[in-house]
Design a protein that fits this description.
Order of helices and strands: EHEEHHEHEHEHEHHHHEHEEEEH
Strand content: 25-35%
Largest sheet: 6 strands, mixed
CATH superfamily of the largest domain: NAD(P)-binding Rossmann-like Domain
Oligomer: single chain
Structural class: alpha/beta
CATH architecture of the largest domain: 3-Layer(aba) Sandwich
């Protein structure tokens, strides 16, 4: 039998629309293989929130948004209501939070997750802000209401970094972790080294829907720092915030800097690092010259990767090539299915 899952999709941007496309193309398989039918009964974007108990048609909603339409034009629009307010009463069994990252207030995602967890509704996040700003609170709220919270999509899209750290490194002491966590900045650095302008490379990343809504989060290192904070809290065993991370972006680099590194056998990457020190970890994000033939040195273009050194599991290397938002949406699906089946 197939179970209908009434779902709130908060954020119908690049990732949200990709999730709708998955429902269009894989809905029958998801139902047949996992016994789940995700029905979008609540949708929200920057214009507001709409609720439709019978469910919005995924294809129609996707086309509406891709054509420039707003949620405020949908049947079921609730004037003046926030997503959090709508979630208090909306027919919802699951929250998918994919609104833009807002490091100032965390809104609208933070209050939406609070509302869902308080009501006993499982939450799946692609938006990093609620975890970066309130990791301990979110987990305490989930525990208090005996409800699951999943967020593998927040770190490197479909690359299951969070799953590996939390599930697969049992009893390990992680001595060192390094990664390229932002494909936009990695692509820009490679293109600049090849002679392309910074502006042109960034424009392509934005056109592909991979750059953050605020691209300074990518190029100034904050998106990478967000992911490092989530990793630190999730499986390094430290209660870290952005204030604990030394952050430097790529905007000060020139094409000459990049070409000089290449001539020296190195390549410059925006690197996140967690180095074990007495009492915890030193957390840093910044451009670093590393060997061209090293694992991370060979993560080029739209690739992201991570290297983990631990006492029990040796040295692990993982990477992904992700040039569109679809894999991140698929990671949300992965989390949802794993929570519900």
């Amino acid at each position: 039998m197939t179970k209908a899952i009434d779902t709130a999709l908060i954020g119908v941007g690049n990732v949200g629309r990709s999730f709708l496309r998955i429902l269009e193309t894989k809905g029958e398989r998801i139902a047949a293989q996992y016994g789940l039918a995700f029905r979008i009964t609540c949708a929200a974007d920057s214009s507001g929130v709409a609720v439709q108990p019978a469910g919005f048609d995924p294809a129609a909603l996707r086309r509406h948004k891709e054509g420039g339409g707003r949620v405020s034009a949908l049947d079921g629009y609730l004037p003046g209501r926030t997503p959090a307010e709508a979630l208090v009463e909306a027919p919802v069994d699951l929250l998918l939070e994919a609104s833009p990252v807002n490091l100032q207030t965390g809104e609208p995602g933070l209050s939406a997750v609070r509302a869902a967890l308080s009501r006993g509704i499982p939450a799946v996040l692609a938006n990093k802000a609620p975890l970066v700003l309130a990791y301990a609170e979110m987990h305490a709220l989930a525990a208090a209401n005996n409800v699951p919270l999943a967020y593998s999509a927040t770190v490197c899209g479909a690359l299951p970094v969070i799953n590996i750290g939390r599930r697969d490194l049992v009893a390990a002491d992680i001595h060192y972790l390094a990664g390229i966590f932002n494909s936009t900045s990695n692509f820009i650095l490679g293109e600049m080294a090849a002679g392309r302008s910074y502006a042109d490379a960034l424009a392509e990343a934005q056109a592909r829907g991979l750059a953050e809504t605020d691209p300074s989060l990518d190029v100034e290192g904050w998106d990478t720092a967000n992911k490092l904070v989530i990793i630190a809290n999730s499986f390094l065993g430290v209660r870290a915030t952005l204030a604990d991370v030394e952050v430097k972006g790529i905007t000060g680099l020139t094409a000459e800097d990049l070409r000089a590194a290449l001539a020296d056998g190195s390549t410059i990457k925006l690197l996140a690092q967690a180095e074990q020190v007495p009492g915890g970890y030193r957390l840093t994000v910044g451009p670093k010259a590393i060997g061209q033939r090293s694992f991370l040195g060979q993560c080029d273009g739209w690739e992201m990767g991570i290297e983990i050194k631990s006492d029990l599991y040796g040295i692990m290397y993982h990477k992904i090539w992700e040039r569109e938002p679809l894999p991140t949406a698929a990671a949300m699906l992965r989390d949802a299915v794993n929570l519900l089946v």
